[in-house]
Each structure stands twice: as structure tokens, then as C-alpha cells.
User: Fold this.
Amino acid sequence: MLDLIIIGAGPAGLSAAEAAQQAGLDYLVIEKGTIANTIRQYPVGRTMFSTPNEVEMHPGALKPVREKPTREEALSHYIHFVLDLDLRINTGEKVVSVNGNIDEGFVIKTDLGEYEARRVLFAIGAMEHPRHLNVPGEDLPKVHHLFVDPYAYVRKEALVVGGGNSAAEAALFLSQEGARTTMAIWREDWENRDPKAGAMKHWVRTPLEAEVKAGRLKVVLYKHVDEIREREVTLTTETGESMTLPNDVVFVLVGSDADLTLLKQLGVKTEAGKIAEVPVYDHETFETNVRGIYVAGHFTHARHIKAAIEVPRRIVPLIAQDLKGHR
Ligand SMILES: Cc1cc2nc3c(=O)[nH]c(=O)nc-3n(C[C@H](O)[C@H](O)[C@H](O)COP(=O)(O)OP(=O)(O)OC[C@H]3O[C@@H](n4cnc5c(N)ncnc54)[C@H](O)[C@@H]3O)c2cc1C
Assistant:
């Protein structure tokens, strides 16, 4: 029986793995994708919002060419962190169920095997379920709920739906790289200037507005999308008019939600958070109401990478102490 299974190899899971190694725990990280899978899904070449000190695993370890790291620099940093410390991670393996209790231990089933562990830390992020518009045609192959690169869409008619930074960046990159881009956004998002309320970062807005001014990017203040068809999209504008746009590709970037199913099956309670549903947990130990089950990272209240790295460093030593007490 392992001491600790960590589900997910994002910044939170990696930080937990290092803390477990330092505490001498017998641990394993299980990751359904690749190391830092969420960051690998950022747009190609994207500059992060964070400065190196907010995303690096050790002070001074991430040395970006410019002030802020790119997707590639951050990814390489996380991968070399794993290689340098020789952390125990199974990639390409998905956890499909967790059962048991703190007294007898937990059984963790994956699509490839089965493990037993005394404690389980969920570091599963919040990218599992991209939000949908739920409109006819959203299941067409040309509709994407993730934007990774703009280069396939030169001179194509592209529509980006959404009001946050991901949508704004996608619209900007597509427009800059020659896609005939329209961004459909609600007025409240377009006019939102409050960074705490998820407003577009100014270094995204400024070039975006320049694209609009240059006549390359069209912004439509809309109410809802009505239908996506092979060659066009119809939407209703904020003034209630129906608008039909020629269209080759749609990016629906309206946020995503964590998959809390495994936690709920264990009996972990959830509550409404500011942005999404979050598990209920102790804010000191990050242990949930189910003893022995812990949470960290993007699907908790500590959402950003900085907190995703810091929290496991605090809680894994507590888990190690607790385990010693039970031996
Ligand atoms: C486009 C975009 C840009 C962003 N930019 C920034 C930024 O500039 N700065 C910043 O601080 N934050 C940014 N964020 C948020 C940041 O990516 C997250 O805060 C960060 O990834 C959280 O780390 P995490 O370890 O909690 O979760 P994640 O990095 O999402 O890691 C969770 C991991 O768990 C794995 N997993 C999930 N379920 C299972 C399962 N059942 N079995 C096995 N593995 C599983 C996933 O594959 C994933 O690799 C951005 C997010 C997006 C989408």
C-alpha cells in the first residue's frame, strides 16, 4: 500500500510530488495526459500572465527570454523539474474511481490498473468539462472548445465566442495570423475593466483594440448564438437583430469546469464558489469532509499557479505527520 496517491501532474500535483519525496513518503502521481497537460494546451507561443516567481518550482529556476515565460518555457521548466528530481509519475493513465476509507485505505482504479494508498490528493485542475453554448450545430467538427494554434485558419472565416482572456487571446492570435475573425462578446464583458472580475488583461486588450481599429477584427456585441451550420453562423445581437456570418471555424471559449464526480462518489461535499462549484475542505489542511482525501489547485479556492504550488508544500508535510501517527 502506497502512502499517497496524487491525481494530476499539473503545477499542484508536481509540487505535491516533490513535497512527498522530501517527506520520504511512498507516493505516486497518476496523470491522464502528459506532464503539465493544461499548460501544454495553452495557445502555441503564448506569453503567460504570470511572472516567473509565480509559476516556477524553485526560486530563479525559470529564466524566460522576456519578462514573462512563454507556454514553451513554462512547459520545459515543469518537465525538467520532474526529470531532475526523478519524480514518480505515470502519464497516460486516467483515474476512474476511488473507494475506501482512512482506516482500511483507499483503492484507486485507473484505465490501466489498480492501486492502494493510505491517503489521496486530488490535484485534477478545472479543465475537464469545457462549457458549451448548447445550440444546434455545436457538435459539428469545425466547432472547438479549446484554442491551441491559429495557423490552420489563414483567410478562413473564424468566430470566437466568449468574454474572458482565453477568448480574447484566441481572437487576437487568429486575427493577427490572417484569419477573418469575428469575436462575439457580451457588452458587460467587453466593458469590464475590473481585473478582479475577470476583465481582459490590458496587454491583451490593447493589441486587440488595435486589430479592431485596423479593420481586421470585428467585434459583435451579442445576446446569444442561435445556430451553427456548415458554412455560416446565426446569432442575435444585443439589440435583438438576427445576424448571419459566413463561417469556417468556431471557437467556443466560455470557461470550463472540474469533474468532481470521483470526489462526490467518495462522499465529498461541494459548495458554490465564486466562479464554479468547489469541494468543501478545511482551509488549513485542505482535507475534505472525507478523512484522508485532500484537494489542491485550480478547482479549489486557491486557483492560480502560485497557490497551486504553495498549498501542497504546506499540506503534504501535514499528511506525512498524520501518517506517522497512524503507523
Ligand atoms: C488558456 C489558459 C491560460 C492560463 N494562464 C495562466 C497564467 O498565465 N497564470 C496562471 O497563474 N494561471 C493561468 N491559467 C490557470 C492555470 O493553468 C491553472 O491555475 C493551473 O494549471 C493549475 O494547476 P493545477 O495543477 O491545479 O491544475 P492543472 O494544471 O489543470 O492540472 C491538473 C491535471 O490533472 C489531470 N487529471 C484530471 N483528472 C484526472 C484523472 N481522473 N486521472 C488522472 N489525471 C487527471 C489533468 O490531465 C491535468 O494535467 C491559465 C489557464 C488557461 C486555460
In short: Residues 33 and 132 are 22 Å apart (CA to CA).
